Amino acid sequence: MLDPISGVSNAAAAGSAPETLLAPSRGASPAAAGDAGADFGSFLAQLAGNTVSTLKAGEATALAGVRGQATTQQVVEAVMTSEQTLQTAIAIRDKVVSAFLEVSRMSI
Amino acid sequence: MYDPLRVALKVGASGLEAQSKRLRVVSENLANAQSTASTPGGDPYTRKVVTFENEVDEALGASLVKVAGIERHRTPYRIEHNPSHPAADANGYVKLPNVDIVSEVADMQEANRSYEANLQVIKQARELIAMTIDLLRSN
Amino acid sequence: MSVIHLFDIVSRQNRWLSVRQSTIAGNIANANTPGYKALDVEPFEKALELTRLSMNSTHAGHLAESGARTSTVEAANSSSWDVTHSGNSVSIEQELINAGEVNRAYRLNTSIAKAFHRMILASAKV
Question: How many Å apart are CA B125 and CA B127, to the nearest integer?
């Protein structure tokens, strides 16, 4: 059910994005950011891609549910997964945007 | 429709229907427990019984029940000596229905019990579905 | 990954419980059918093992079959509450007890899933 979230977390080289957000004090973020070969830009691109595909899958399942072709549990799980993935992606996006603004405000 | 909970609803409903038919037949038997023939020497009301059958829907994985038929129960009639009765035969014997009131009442109680159990199954399946949907509520 | 693993287990158990519910429904509906033997689902641990093997290759967005692989087996008639000469082995009391167990477990699972879902959403609101 939560494979899309693990997809997001696979994009982050070390550990899962949700768990990173859950425990920032555990020092997981520095490890993720500084991992050898993991380009942060490509991580964000993958995150965006995974989020979109999760949401699309969730939408498809919900539609199937409305048509009576999916079970109630499948629909509920898909919606929950979409909610979690979207919320996580939004949080990451907000952090990235605020970090970017911070950097842009630095005096040259 | 392979949603097991919805299948449970359908199966429970088939159980309700089957038990209702059974109850109807039992009440017919009880109502006609003393019904004799109208012609002399004729046969009286014959006890009816339902036969249940298991109907399996492989695609849904549903094990439904249905009433295969309502048959006449072939046990001997009760005989009473009552020459003045309109249905008395040449020797004054009247044939009475082969309905035993005590066992009919027991059957009725059994049918009620089964009906209640099926109802319980339906209620619970409905509750489980509601619990699942409730996951999406925000409180 | 522990939280994600939890969601997976809870989801699978609820699917298994749903199949059990429909099996119980079939038993109760056929409580008076001659020759009918009460069925029960295989234990959850066993079902978990089998689905783990078959689910490895499914894509995340694929609508997996829900509980279709939980097979039903003939229930071991350990305590013969009802021994009828019609060959029917259903005990309504036992079925209702099992139904109560399904209810309890399902309720627990959905509560757990809801709680952890809330936690994940709350944690992403930094």
Answer: 5
Structural domain count of chain C: 1
C44's tokens = 């959850």
End-to-end CA distance of chain C: 20
pLDDT in tens, B51-86: 999 999 888 888 999 999 999 998 998 888 888 888
Higher per-residue confidence, C64 vs C98: C98
What CA–CA distance (Å, rounded) separates A105 from A91?
21
Of the listed ranges B82-91, B108-117, C103-112, the one predicted with least confidence: B82-91
Minimal CA separation from A90 to chain B, in Å: 19
Q: Could you list the beta-strand ranges (E) of chain C.
A: 39-41, 72-74
**A37 or C42: which leads in pLDDT:** C42
Our count of domains for chain B comes to 1
| d(CA B64, nearest CA chain A) in Å | 20
- B3 at A interface, C-beta within 8 A: yes
> Which of chain A's residues have a Cβ under 8 Å away from the Cβ of B135?
76, 80
**Cβ neighbourhood burial of A75 (10 Å; 0-12, 13-18, 19+):** buried
Under a CB-based contact definition with an 8 Å cutoff, are residues C70 and C43 in contact?
Answer: no
Tell me the shortest Cα–Cα distance from C16 to chain B, in angstroms. Answer: 9
CA nearest C112 in B: which residue? B135
* pLDDT at C73 > cutoff 80: no
* ipTM for the whole predicted complex goes beyond 0.90: no
Q: Which of B1, B4, B136 sits opposite A76 (nearest CB)?
A: B136
Give burial (CB, 10 Å; 0-12/13-18/19+) of C54: exposed
Write out the residue range of the structural domain in which residue C105 sits: 2-123
Q: Does A76 touch chain B (CB under 8 A)?
A: yes
Q: Is B136 on the interface with A (CB under 8 A)?
A: yes
Please tell me which residue, A11 or B38, carries the higher pLDDT value: B38
